[in-house]
Design goal:
six-stranded mixed sheet; five-stranded mixed sheet; 12 helices; 13 strands; disordered N terminus
Length: 533
């Protein structure tokens, strides 16, 4: 709320009308008091008119009313009436006192009105600044808060349109929020700039004309454009723009204070977001570097071990000084093949992990009988599981499952290799398949090894997770096998979970979706359904 401006034509007309009405009523009351009640001096009645005008329109109008009261009482009530002549010197004293008291009372009432207006204005300014600060504090980013901010500023300043542009210069600013609906706002070459200096009282609007072409012609426009710069540490970050009607004039000092504070708050919020983004980037870089280091640390040993074995076996085969019998040569060749297969599985896991993180996995689902999926993998890993008690329990009534043959083979390979690595040679490994419901079939690979602590089960599928074994340090391995299992199972639409095995070690449950049966096979003919037992 701005103070009433007597400088405007409307203000003069309204104040003048109110003064005439107030003085007329005071004159009427004074006449009644002196004529009917025979009160010798009712001039104090005019003080009521002065107070009323002072409260409504301020000190200048109150002083004018006091002068009018002085003249009216002299002409109408002081003998000789009808002329500005005073015959009795005592009446001069009454008239002077009326004038002085009127002016003093008007000033006091006007000052009280000004204080009240100032208090209301400060309250509105504080509320507006609070709303701006709350939006910036409760919104994730400063840009996300800008649509609400332009609504607040437009309402507070009484603008016809408000928008916020971000960029290093006026020509390069990009509109982030706008209250208008008539297309993108166009900044005219001539606008009012809020000039800010040291101190609260040194804000003023300065007309700026930029030497650049603009599609906005403001000469015939009913609105004027106002700009409040957004700057942080002397660096321009953008502007708050306002359009106000020409008749409203520029925003007053109170509004300028609100706009300047809002621009400062927006600038600080933008700087905060920039620092947060840099901190996030630094944290991402740090974690990426830590992940690379963890990958190298985790994989280096697993890569080096088979390579050492392969080189040792190949070297003994190539050494002409060693006279190896056919059995020893076969043993060396088998060791090379075994270690090369181990190395291949490790590289495959690394590539699968990279594809999972990149979102490049696309499963090609086909219906397969559960027993075929399990037996194929067990047959291929026969050499790895040789000499270990492995039991298989598969229900005969299981429906086929929808799986990618490459993915499911890798899942079972990783799980069986994980069980073989962490369980002692004499402990059993069990593979089971049971139905969960009409939608899923559960494959369970479990062992009788030491297992993992219950509190570590939730992290067992995390990348590079090397959970401690029961009573031991970190479990050996690169820590990516089970992470690959989770990614491949999810790509096939399944789910995976870890728990304590009934054998005492670790159990991994893999739920695979059942394959939909063809319509003819699912329904059959009526006669076939009736003949079914």
């Amino acid at each position: 709320m701005e103070r009433f401006r007597l400088a405007s034509a409307r203000g003069f007309l309204l104040a003048g009308t109110a003064m005439v009405v107030a003085l007329s009523l005071a004159t009427l009351v004074a006449g009644l008091l002196e004529d009917r009640l025979h009160i010798p001096d009712a001039s104090a009645t005019y003080l009521l008119a002065v107070v009323a005008i002072a409260v409504a329109f301020g000190i200048p109008a109150a002083v004018a009313t006091a002068v009018g009261a002085f003249l009216l009482y002299d002409v109408l009530f002081v003998p000789p009436t009808g002329a500005l002549v005073v015959a009795d010197p005592q009446e001069w004293l009454n008239l002077v006192l009326l004038l002085v008291l009127g002016i003093v009372v008007g000033q006091l009432a006007g000052m009280q009105r000004a204080r009240a207006e100032t208090a209301v204005l400060r309250e509105r300014q504080a509320l507006a600044q609070y709303r701006v600060g709350r939006e910036l504090a409760t919104t994730a980013t400063a840009v996300a808060a800008m649509p609400s901010l332009v609504e607040i500023l437009q309402s507070e300043v009484g603008a016809t349109r408000a928008w916020i542009g971000l960029g290093p210069g006026v020509a390069g600013e990009r509109v982030m929020a706008d209250t208008g609906s008539a297309g993108r706002p166009v900044v005219p070459v001539s606008y009012e700039l809020l000039q800010r200096r040291a101190g609260d009282a040194a804000t003023e609007w300065v007309r700026i004309r930029e030497p650049r072409p603009s599609a906005a012609d403001v000469r015939g426009s009913q609105d004027l454009c106002y700009r409040v710069p957004i700057a942080v540490a002397g660096v321009s970050r953008g502007s708050v723009w306002l359009l106000r009607t020409r008749s409203a004039g520029p925003p007053g000092r109170g509004h300028a204070r609100v706009l300047a504070a809002a621009a400062d708050q927006i600038g600080q919020a933008l700087e905060r977001d920039r620092l947060a983004e840099e901190a996030t980037g630094a944290e991402i870089a740090r974690r990426s570097e830590a992940a690379k280091t963890a990958l190298l640390d985790s994989v280096s040993h697993d890569l080096r071990t088979p390579l050492v074995s392969i080189r040792a076996a190949a070297g003994s085969l190539l050494d002409p000084a060693l006279n190896l019998d056919p059995g020893a040569r076969h043993e060396r060749a088998a060791a090379i093949d075994r270690e090369a297969d181990r190395l291949n599985r490790l590289v495959t896991n690394l590539l699968d992990m990279s594809r999972i993180e990149g979102g490049d996995l696309r499963a090609r689902l086909e219906p397969f009988p559960v027993e075929d999926v399990i037996e194929t993998t067990l047959e291929r890993l026969g050499g790895l599981l040789a000499g270990r008690p492995v039991s298989v329990a598969i229900r005969d009534d299981l429906p086929p499952v929808a799986v990618d043959p490459v993915f499911i083979d890798q899942v079972l390979t990783n799980l069986l290799e994980n069980a073989e690595r962490h369980a002692p040679p004499e402990t059993p490994i069990r593979v089971r398949a049971v139905p969960v419901d009409a939608e899923f079939v559960r494959l369970t690979i479990e062992d009788g090894g030491p297992g993992v602590p219950p509190e570590a089960l939730a992290r067992i599928f995390d990348k590079f997770s090397r959970t401690p074994g029961a009573g031991r340090g970190a479990r050996p391995g690169a820590g990516i096998g089970l992470a690959v299992v989770r990614g491949l199972v999810a790509a096939m639409g399944g789910r995976v979970a870890a728990r304590i095995s009934e054998l005492g070690g670790l159990a991994i449950d893999v739920d695979l979706r059942t394959a939909p049966l063809p319509a003819a096979e699912a329904g059959g003919t009526p006669s076939e359904r009736e003949a079914a037992p």
